[in-house]
Amino acid sequence: MNRKTLVLPAVIGLLAPVLAACGGTDSGSKDDGAIVVGTTDRFTASKEAPAPLDPAYAYDVGTWNILRQTVQTLMIQPRGEGEPVPEAAERCGFTDTGNERYACTLRDGLEFANGDPVTAADVKYSIDRALSLKADSGVSALLSTIDTVETQGDREIVFHLKTADATFPYKLSTPVAGIVDPDDYPKGQLRDGFDLQGSGPYTLRADVENGEMVRAEFTRNPHYKGSLKVNNDKVAMVSFKDADAMGAALDKGDIDLMTRAMSPKQIRELSGDADNGVDLVEMSGLEIRYLGFNTDAPPVKSKAVRQAMAQVVNRSELVSKVYGSQAEPLYSLVPASITGHSNSFFNRYGEPNAAKARALLNQANITTPVKLTLHYTTDHYGPATKEEFEVLRDQLNSSGLFDVDIKGAPWGTFRPAEKKGRYDVYGMGWFPDFPDADNFLAPFLDADNTLGSPYDNSRIRDTLIPESRREADRLSASTSLTDIQDIVAGDVPVLPLWQGKQYVAARDDITGTAYALNSASTLQLWELGRGVSG
Question: Quick one: signal sequence residues (predicted)?
Fold first, then answer.
């Protein structure tokens, strides 16, 4: 058995993967040559969310990972990270000194998967459609700095922005800016179900049972013209009910690779087993977990209650008990590896201290114990979520200041209820749309935020966010970004908990696994290939 060694360039947001458990057994799925990827993500069309794969609606890491394979964007985050590069576009760039006018030229001969030409008018239609629909997922907020979209001939697109936005190229790399065919996507309504067409590297065929997509089959798009090198002809993605079922399928060779969400136990076992024919790839990630608050709800309307929770929660104990070395405590919404990060919560609260928390509550005349229910999703962020919330419950209750219960619900129920403000306190995760501090702040704090949060700080919205976006040099934006994080630590509309690493486990004849995920948890199926095990 020859252990593989891989060294990647040192780049922000991505560490050199660590490979373990290389064996020499026969491997490969039994799926007609397709590379088969397992996931515990669930893809459901329901009355409350009938259009899970419409780019104008979709806004979670699972559905975005479907869209990124099929719907092309003008820009894309490059292999190995860094600033976005042209994808459907041949070139893009700001054409003024104020970062308010952004122009792109489409690649010549670009086509949708059905052979229809992709034109500048299609790009304008797609962007205008997402903005006008303004889906309740909040995804259109990524395009909120756009004032108008102008076309010049069939290949030239000009974006006129309301205000300077140095992060705009990143936003054009996200699926909400994906180019759709007006013949398939009506202007005034979302496209229900799991039909999906685009000009990306793959076409999609969905197998659906009882309103849920259980298998997605991606076939190389013969009309694709873009910057990506596609290393396979077909990839299938299969949804499993839990991590154990997914792991069993990998052991049997029914799937070739599994990603999110493996359990901490699985990762520990794969890290320690060098002869099972499976490679475990570990890389840094930008996933964060946090508690969100409905700041209008009576139990947590007083910021003293939220501050007291921030003063009691022991992140180090939480991470140690549940995730071990797979996560790190987080003291801001912005992860430690992102330019502009500040440990604002630690700077304000220090180590967990129940006496200080009691003083905060007494000063605000809050009667204790404060009765709360913490809500979490049972099937979206991995099997350890319940244990995580049990630890949080016990920490809060042991302070004597809180009377906390926990309650779980599947994502299809949890997310609509959260958006409608039915939960006072709830656990959420965030996989960034792009690796910039702005994307860990604006989606939670700006108008039309993704949580539907009533929290509104005018200094953050009207001054600090626009101020930070004017800085093309993101280091120069640090003062504004730090001020935002300090305000959040004081008001606690959200309570950051931890940031995690990410993992891919693959049978040892699968190549390209080191690039199967980028730091923002984007699944890059085109990187995968099949080689020789050993």
Answer: 1-20
Asked if residue 345 lies in contact with residue 331, where contact means CB atoms within 8 angstroms, the answer is yes
Nearest CA to 54 out of 166, 129, 2 is that of 129
Q: What SS3 class is residue 461? A: helix
pLDDT given at position 275: 66
Give me the chain's average pLDDT, please. 90
Mean pLDDT for 63-74 is 96
CA 308/CA 317 separation, integer angstroms: 17
- Flag whether pLDDT at 46 surpasses 60: yes
Cα end-to-end distance, the chain, whole Å: 6
**Radius of gyration over every alpha carbon of the chain, rounded to an integer in angstroms:** 23
pLDDT digits (tens, 9 = 90+) for 182-204: 999 999 999 999 999 999 999 99
Cα dihedral: 216, 222, 223, 227 (round 10) = 80
Name residues whose C-beta falls within 8 Å of residue 488's C-beta, 6 or more positions apart in sequence.
Answer: 332, 333, 344, 441, 445, 494
Distances (CA, A) of 503 to 16, 42, 451, 533: 12, 19, 27, 20
CB half-sphere exposure, 217, CA atoms < 13 A:
9
Distance of CA 521 to the CA centre of its chain: 6
For helices 303-312 and 385-398, the axis angle rounded to 10 degrees is 100
- How does residue 532 score in pLDDT terms, banded at 50, 70 and 90? low
Q: In angstroms, rounded to a whole number, what is the distance separating the alpha carbons of residues 14 and 9?
A: 9
Of the listed ranges 15-19, 263-267, 361-365, 433-437, the one predicted with least confidence: 15-19
Residue 97 near residue 472 (C-beta atoms within 8 A) = no
pLDDT digits (tens, 9 = 90+) for 346-396: 999 999 999 999 999 999 999 999 999 999 999 888 889 999 999 999 999
- Distance separating alpha carbons of residues 333 and 501, to the nearest angstrom: 16
Cα–Cα separations (whole angstroms), residue 133 to 93, 129, 174: 27, 6, 17
- CA atoms in the 13 A half-sphere facing the CB of 130: 32
**pLDDT in the model for residue 11:** 35
Q: What's phi and psi for 248, nearest 5 deg?
A: -65, -35
DSSP 74: S
- Which residues on neighbouring strands pair with residue 148, listed in sequence order? 160
Distance from C-alpha of 252 to C-alpha of 100, rounded to nearest angstrom = 54
250: Cβ contacts below 8 Å, ≥ 6 apart: 38, 256, 257, 258, 278, 505, 507
| Contact of 260 with 522, CB cutoff 8 Å | no
β-pairing verdict for 75-76 and 43-44: unpaired
What one-letter code names the amino acid at 176?
Answer: V
Phi, psi of 224 (to 5 degrees): -65, 130
Taking 60 as the threshold, does the pLDDT of residue 29 lie above it?
no
In 162-277, the DSSP E strands lie at: 202-209, 212-220, 234-239, 257-258
